[in-house]
Amino acid sequence: TPSSRCAMACSRTCSRILGLSLGATALFAAATNTALLFPNWDVTYLLRGLIGRQAMLGSGLWGGGLMVLTAATLISLMGRRHGCFRKSGPCQSMLTALLSSGLALLGALICFITSGIALKDGPFCMFDVSSFNQTQTWKYGYPFKDLPNRNYLYDHSLWNSVCLEPSKAVVWHVGFFSVLLCISLLQTLLVVIHFINSFLGLFCSLCEK
């Protein structure tokens, strides 16, 4: 019927928009994780191996980045009906939609969990151990990880007093990992919308037949 054909066209248009949106978020996630590897835009910390675990894990590069970008490409191709998707039936389209949604959701969740852990543990930086015991020694580590009775995220007085190097380590860490957290949440929302859109497209395709 004309109404079902119109609905299918809208579903394909929605897929194209969702694919482009997911692709853009994937590129932002990769760029954000890359920035975390260069505190204060200084390459020496990376060369010396003085980068935190979560940043080195690179979940924004391969999780929220590459995995989501791959899924976004599939979703966009489905919306444009290029190549092997041109004559694909409803079942094949639904299977592809499920696979692409699952891949994007997995990548987004990995990025979200890693960013949450990173924000909880705090930045990897040089700090004065004498703040925690009687030995005056400077070392690299996670000074906020086991900080008793104080949450550094809410106590901004700790941001410039604990980490000695890199300068503004807390601001850099909190800022970019918060961005990654928001990007992964947005990616999850887009995946849910794509999933619903795919079901509507399948329903309209079956109605047309």
UniProtKB/TrEMBL annotation:
GO terms for cellular component: actin cytoskeleton; filopodium; membrane. GO terms for molecular function: protein homodimerization activity. It is a multi-pass membrane protein. GO terms for biological process: positive regulation of osteoclast differentiation. The chain crosses the membrane at residues 55-77, 98-119, 170-196. InterPro entries: L6_membrane (IPR008661). Belongs to the L6 tetraspanin family. This is Transmembrane 4 L six family member 19.
